[in-house]
Amino acid sequence: MSIDLIYPSLYEALSLADASLQLWISITFMLMLGGTVRTMWFVRAARRDSEEQ
Predict the structure, then answer these.
(1) Is 22 helix (H, G, I), strand (E, B) or coil?
(2) How many CB atoms lie within 10 A of CB 28?
(3) Residue 27's domain spans which residues?
(4) Span 30-41, mean pLDDT?
(5) Alpha carbons 23 and 17: distance in angstroms, whole number
(6) Over residues 27-37, mean pLDDT
């Protein structure tokens, strides 16, 4: 095998891995953001319930 055959497939694999890594990072960020917002909403609801009593 020559380097011409190896290099494009290696480059393709790296770019594919980079794309999937970016996807996972964005998914993780969105989940963390959603969890933070949900936690704040729960805290606010609990605080409102304790004020009403």
Answers:
(1) helix
(2) 10
(3) 1-53
(4) 94
(5) 10
(6) 94
Identify the pLDDT of residue 32. Answer: 95
Read off the pTM: 0.51
Rounded Cα distance, 44 and 36, in Å: 12
CA gap 18, 3 in Å, rounded: 22
Structure tokens at 48: 């409102």
Query: How far, in Å, CA of 1 to CA of 21, rounded?
Result: 29
Tell me what the pLDDT averaged over the chain comes to.
85
Q: Which two tokens stand for residue 49?
A: 């319930």
**C-alpha 24 chain-centroid distance:** 5
Q: Is the pLDDT of residue 16 over 90?
A: no
The number of domains in the chain is: 1
Cα 38 vs. chain centroid, distance in angstroms?
Answer: 16
